[in-house]
Amino acid sequence: MITLFKNIKELIQVRNETISFVSGKNMNVLPTIKNAYLLVENGIIADFGSMSNLKSMDADEVIDATGKMILPTWCDSHTHLVYSGNRESEFVDRIKGLSYQEIANKGGGILNSAKKLQETSEDNLYEQSKVRLEEVIRLGTGAIEIKSGYGLTLESELKMLRVIKRLKENYTVPIKATFLGAHAVPSEFKNNKEGYIKLLIEEVLPQVAQQKLAEYMDVFCEKGYFSVEDTERILQAGKKYGLTPKIHVNQFNSIGGVQAGVKYKALSVDHLEEMTNEDIEALKNTKTMPVALPGCSYFLSIPYTPARKMIDAGLPLALATDYNPGSSPSGNMNFVVSAASVKMKMTPEEAINAVTINGAYAMGLEKEVGSITVGKRANIILTKPINSYGFIPYSFGNPQIESVYISGKKIG
Ligand SMILES: N=CN[C@@H](CCC(=O)O)C(=O)O
Ligand SMILES: [Zn+2]
Description:
Elements: E1 2-12, E2 32-41, E3 44-50, E4 61-64, E5 69-72, E6 74-76, H1 88-95, H2 100-105, H3 110-118, H4 122-138, E7 141-147, H5 154-170, E8 175-182, H6 193-210, E9 216-221, H7 228-239, E10 244-249, H8 257-263, E11 268-271, H9 277-283, E12 289-292, H10 294-300, H11 307-312, E13 318-319, H12 333-344, H13 348-355, H14 357-361, E14 380-383, H15 391-394, E15 401-406, E16 409-410
Parallel strand pairs: 1-4, 1-5, 6-7, 7-8, 8-9, 9-10, 10-11, 11-12, 12-13
Antiparallel strand pairs: 1-2, 2-3, 5-14, 14-15, 15-16
N-(iminomethyl)-L-glutamic acid is lined by residues 80, 109-110, 113, 220, 248, 251, 296, 322, 324-327.
InterPro entries: Amidohydro-rel (IPR006680), HutI (IPR005920), Metal-dep_hydrolase_composite (IPR011059), Metal_Hydrolase (IPR032466)
Binding site for Fe(3+): 78, 80, 248, 322
Main location: cytoplasm
């Protein structure tokens, strides 16, 4: 099957070769071709270039993209999309003045979601999760990472990971699974965190690895959750099973989680709302991708990751939704692009690089998605007629996507 997209007003994020990620000043460089064509063969990008170089050919399908733009789909490298129910009542509690931490201390928060998930059947959890996955694909997400971490028992963590596996089997978007057993200390272990860590290391991790249910592992390294020492122990245990870390750090406090991530060669360190100069220094010249989650900052009214300071210091940055019921109940990457520009002062070029090539790297998918490159999957966004790609962050809340193609097939 050959599909030709022709007369594309601007083809965005074109890279002749696969690159890992962009950092510092290069984040402000977004290569494009104006008046372009894109050729897709059997779901893979086969060719692209300027319309003036298009040779005559027999395509099975020709799509005239006059006035419209094409970009690679968004790469959402941090989500908790598999969850049960919602936490709307906590949202109302926060409106009335309680903080996220106060709600968590009262047994709400992650523990509230864990209780709901434990009481939900695997089939029902799958049904709830697939609705969210389909929704975010329609919003332009074409590769996604999903974490466990609302199970907090052997049985329920495995249940979550099996749901992620079923999503992988039934959808063609690339999905990466992350084991986040160390998301919170369950109430049964309230005064025995050590017991829970032992359970994770000695019982849950070996099962996750044996059943090949995750590519990555995560720890919520934060005051009141898991200390740097706990984090290092858990990462060390996961390393034995070949699980690469992608960790939650510096959401509320800078306690050394960034340094632990770098030490254990984490693929990414995520959140980073609180960053010291030492944290920024620690990330320099490493392969660990910093990931900012502006939806969480927006929803919890906490600081935004200091993107300007980090990029100006030469670091790369990826952006993701953190889609979860407590701190970011939205998987809309278009909002993330906009919030990054409006609130974090990232240029449209920086924001688009952060949600495409850098996002792909942050989940180990940079060879498959994240740019318009021959040989990559044809996971692409066709915009409505717009004047420039800067219109996407500018027109916040107004969808500029006309259609989404996954492996060359139009969705919906
Ligand atoms: N901070 C830790 N975990 C999630 C939120 C979990 C929740 O509140 O349910 C996050 O990334 O924001
Ligand atoms: Zn998260």
